[in-house]
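Re: the 259-residue chain
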Amino acid sequence: MNLLVLEPREIGTPLPRSDRRVEHTRKILKKGVGDVLAAGLAGGPGDPCPLGTARVESWDGSRMVFSFAPEREAPPLRPVSLILGFPRPIQVTRILKDLCSLGVRRILMAPTDLGEKSYADSTIFKERDFLRPLLEGAEQAGNPRLPEADAFPSLAAALAALGSAAPGETRWALDPYRAEGAFGSLLDFGAGTPGPGPSGSASRAFTLAVGSERGWTDRELDALAASAFRFASLGDRILRTETACAVAVTLALASLGRL
């Protein structure tokens, strides 16, 4: 935990001993009453998300209370969004944590034609139980901003929520059969220097699409193409969904000059 991430309602509220943040503060950081640690307040892409310090105000052996002193606003999330076909439920928490750590701005998840149908009935998708892995990703990254994350009943619904491409936004779906080439070779890394203007990263954004384990059907590929997606591969090796997400986002961030 590189940053204690609190929700605004938790400031001054006793947190139970079982809370993993309390346990980490006590057992790993060895903090007690009066000690301070780096902290931030969680929020979405456009919310106020101050960084500062938390102070352990009290600890009675069963509950801990933190205060918070803001110092500066957290940096913004990266201009990268991702459509993700439902992966195995056991993978979802790892993927969300990693995507949040990388600074992805928006994550839209949906079942796919070839994906396992039972995934949609899992608790994490039915209840949209995404907060904890996102918070863990924020703790790892040292930035309390959380991406917008939601689940949709179909790819069509996710694409509708995504809307039309914004100026400067490029859209890429991973598919080895319709790929124009390897994703890394199709990106303009020379234009990735941060800064204003047409060639700067401030005017550029990416939306990526990664399918479920068995990939996309022709029907889904046609729908992606109709929503302005181009197609790329990640080389000649077959990657797990969580690996493909991390690699594709990393390449996009490198192209933006963010890595």
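The CA atoms of residues 238 and 244 lie 9 Å apart.
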